Amino acid sequence: MRLIVPLQGVVQGRGGLILGSIIPGALYYFFQLYLKRCRSAKPNSNPPSPSSSSAQLADLSRSSSRSNLSSRGSVGPVRVSARANSIAKPNASPYYIGLEMASEDPYDRFDNPDGIMQLGLSENRLSLDLIETWILENLERSMIGGADGHLNISGIATYQPLDGMMEMKIAVAGFMSQVMGTTVSFDPSRLVLTSGATPAIETLCFCLADQGNAFLVPTPYYPGFDRDMKWRTGVELIPVHCRSSDNFALSVTALDQAFNQARKRGQKVRGILISNPSNPIGNMLNKETLYSLLDFAREKNIHIISDEIFAGSTYGSEEFVSMAEILESEDFDKNRVHIIYGLSKDLSLPGFRVGVIYSFNTSVLAAAKKLARFSSVSAPTQRILISMLSDTRFIQRYIETTRERIKKMYVAFAAGLKQLGIECTKSSAGLYCWADMSGLIRPYNEKGELELWDKLLKIGKINITPGSACHCIEPGWFRCCFTMLAEEDIPVVIKRIQRVVET
Amino acid sequence: MAIETDQQPPVGLSRVAVSETHGEDSPYFAGWKAYDENPYDESKNPSGVIQMGLAENQVSFDLLEEFLKQHSEASIWGNKISGFRENALFQDYHGLQSFRKAMASFMEQIRGGRAKFDPDRVVLTAGATAANELLTFILADPGDALLVPTPYYPGFDRDLRWRTGVKIVPIHCDSSNNFQVTPQALEAAYNNAEAMNIKVRGVLITNPSNPLGTTIQRSVLEEILDFVTRKNIHLVSDEIYSGSVFSSSEFVSIAEVLEARNNKGSERVHIVYSLSKDLGLPGFRVGTIYSYNDKVVTTARRMSSFTLISSQTQHLLASMLSDKEFTQNYIETNRERLRKRYGMIIQGLRVAGIECLQGNAGLFCWMNLSPLLETPTREGELALWNSILHEVKLNISPGSSCHCSEPGWFRVCFANMSEQTLEVALDRIHQFMKRRCDKEKLGHV
């Protein structure tokens, strides 16, 4: 925390966000990113044990009372909740530590060539230029003004439906359909809009599970799930391990095993969470797998949450198949399927905070709609996006261009890694590749993996995400995001990895 | 492919999902439904229901529109391409530095510079609804309680309790002393909780009060602060209407009380604010938690990941709120217009024979219809509320939905409509009272 203040002083002197050139702006951005990534949840491959966590809580209370000078003379500092205590702990996960360090010392080709290159954040910057242009050409018209130029603020100032304006839902439903190849249509009345996919998934957990219940989650999975799904809900995540031997494919047998083991422990499983396209692997589930998942869920009478946030970020030859598409064509029980989406990845607008819960279950929708009040989308932002998303010609051009650019980067990046003898799993979507560096770690276990991660970060000055942070059962795998880089940066990345690996 | 078995029970939902704690079946919200089905419109539906149950401020929209017209760069991110890009990618839970600074300075201006706010203690949330829930998650565990003076905003039942599992134990206030909080009432509420084996984690006050429309006196704030210090619990001061006080000298923020004590013991105090009422921008979803407690600030910040404000909105408002000339003019003009409106409704009600609690803030008045009740009970109040809704076609909020211990009080909002509409509403009330009077004269009740 104390590190932030002097850095902020430096950045503020440059005139803030609007003025100033790209470089201080980028610095400022990376810096803010570091601040944002100071989360504390520690993704642990072991199931949480009550005794150790309460010991941690006790430690925390003691240290906080030592440092709390103003409590001298009273009965001790006023206490916060157990939930707060667990979040107040500093980060221990490499996922967050790496993000922090990279933002403290961000690489810049000209201004900071020895800085840390950020490959640990799945953000797509490749096509922001298209959006910028659209905004500059269309903003004034779309924000508040009508055709006659008369400003009327009441359309965005007053209370709007807290789960999103109907116009926005229609626009987002249309976008989802377009981005998924128009093979499926989305019903706007089945949408609940939230301020980002983060609250979307938390809200769904609140609706589908009670404290202490669990979700089955295939590994490796996005480290953020540990925070988003567990913190305030009290829900547990049970990892279902997938292996490289079958390309990390999801097996129903493994799900079944995990389900039965949970039952033996007395733990109630309420659903399965899949991410499709997968983060961090970048593969997509085929129709067969989706059907077997539905069968499994029906047999156990549990829910399926399908996080499809990368649905539009595909670059392979396969077509993406949404859960919604399967349900449209078959006579499955739709009440157990819920889809998560958002505009942070496919539309590169994480700052605007737009997430989606899409459900076929009217009771879930009713509850989620009411809960959306705690995480609503800002009205002026909805206004701009309604305009942008309804410009379907622009959106089509954007989707196609972004796909081409992601593919180009992926090919170049994977080829670069291959030069070093590092193979990636065959992937067709996402903003990253899943690289096998198991041959480069010593010993062949989590410790060896983290040592390599540490060396790459501190000596190589590259931040990538180690598989253990994603609960991967096999050591040596790393997620490398490449959509924040420019093409010229790729050789630099490869050289740096080479330097570390060859010592 | 799948064979459906009709005998299978439907896939289950959580307790949170099926709970009634959202409270949307209460009269507070039933009146809204009646309005939605038959909304008043000056020209298109002059006999429709007039919405007087929504505390929204529409009296100063012209000032906002004027600003936006003259400062289009606020919405365009300037001509430099880089401005937009960074903003589009910005999802840092610390929030835009420029916006936090502007927020802190706006809060200072509202308090006439009598309190200082540090931008680094400002935590941003998507609305005060989220801020209150977030604070509750942080300050209390499931099963614990917050003490809240009655009558209180009906939304608290949902916002403070639903997902958090925390309880509300009321601090009873009554008209004998204009519904002010007393030390006795505080103690009684605390003991009440203890007797039920419930752990009290804090007191939550709304200052100025919703639904009373009054500011809390300095001496009462001192007493409340002493009480929470003695019990070593938290104090949350929801100051969402702090900019809607009719006379600037009459509002005392808890921040001022703390500063007078050199901020001693301030780590138990947290202020909630928002732009939904004072600035009339509820659609923007802008709320904040201002905490004097470092741990609460850090934790709230992290937890705000679930409720971040759009970076675009932050940018727009940073521009607006850091324009001190604009904000000073806005605060003064808005205050004056609200005062005028308040005067108008009070006078109109008085002419109709209805008295209100003497108020000095907010977007509503606290009306006393107890003389009209057939029986001095909650049922009597609801019966009266029903006839006002269906005969007079006015949606007002019954005191029972605010947990008022005395039946017959109603909250009536006056800032979410034009002056003409307010005149129509007052006229309807006048006619209603006249009819009642005539009925009584004729021996009917």
Automatic annotation (TrEMBL), chain A:
Pfam families, A to Z: Aminotran_1_2 (PF00155)
For this protein, the record's PROSITE patterns field holds: AA_TRANSFER_CLASS_1
Q: Which residue stretches does the UniProt record annotate as biased composition, category Low complexity?
A: 51-76
The regions listed as transmembrane in this protein's record are 15-35
Question: Which residue stretches belong to region Disordered?
Answer: 42-76
Keyword field: Membrane, Pyridoxal phosphate, Transmembrane, Transmembrane helix
Source superkingdom: Eukaryota
InterPro entries given in the database record: Aminotransferase_I/II_large, Ethylene_sulfur-biosynth, NHTrfase_class1_PyrdxlP-BS, PyrdxlP-dep_Trfase, PyrdxlP-dep_Trfase_major, PyrdxlP-dep_Trfase_small
Named from the GO MF annotations, one term is: 1-aminocyclopropane-1-carboxylate synthase activity
**Does the keyword section mention S-adenosyl-L-methionine?**
no
| Family assignment from sequence similarity | Belongs to the class-I pyridoxal-phosphate-dependent aminotransferase family.
What name does the UniProt record give this protein?
Aminotransferase class I/classII large domain-containing protein
Automatic annotation (TrEMBL), chain B:
Q: Its GO biological process terms?
A: ethylene biosynthetic process; fruit ripening
The beginning of the lineage is: Eukaryota, Viridiplantae, Streptophyta, Embryophyta, Tracheophyta
Keyword Nucleus part of the UniProt annotation? no
Q: Which family does it belong to?
A: Belongs to the class-I pyridoxal-phosphate-dependent aminotransferase family.
Q: What class of enzyme is it?
A: lyase
Cofactor(s) needed, names only, are:
pyridoxal 5'-phosphate
Where does the signal peptide begin and end? none
UniProt superkingdom: Eukaryota
What positions does the domain Aminotransferase class I/classII large occupy?
A: 50-429
Q: What is this protein called?
A: 1-aminocyclopropane-1-carboxylate synthase
Q: Which GO terms describe its molecular function?
A: 1-aminocyclopropane-1-carboxylate synthase activity; pyridoxal phosphate binding; transaminase activity
Keyword terms of this UniProt record: Ethylene biosynthesis, Fruit ripening, Lyase, Pyridoxal phosphate, S-adenosyl-L-methionine
Q: What is its EC number?
A: 4.4.1.14
Identify the Pfam families for this entry: Aminotran_1_2
**Does S-adenosyl-L-methionine count among this protein's keywords?**
yes
> Pathway of this protein?
Alkene biosynthesis; ethylene biosynthesis via S-adenosyl-L-methionine; ethylene from S-adenosyl-L-methionine: step 1/2
Q: What organism is listed for this UniProt entry?
A: Vitis rotundifolia (Muscadine grape)
Reaction equation(s) it catalyzes = S-adenosyl-L-methionine = 1-aminocyclopropane-1-carboxylate + S-methyl-5'-thioadenosine + H(+)
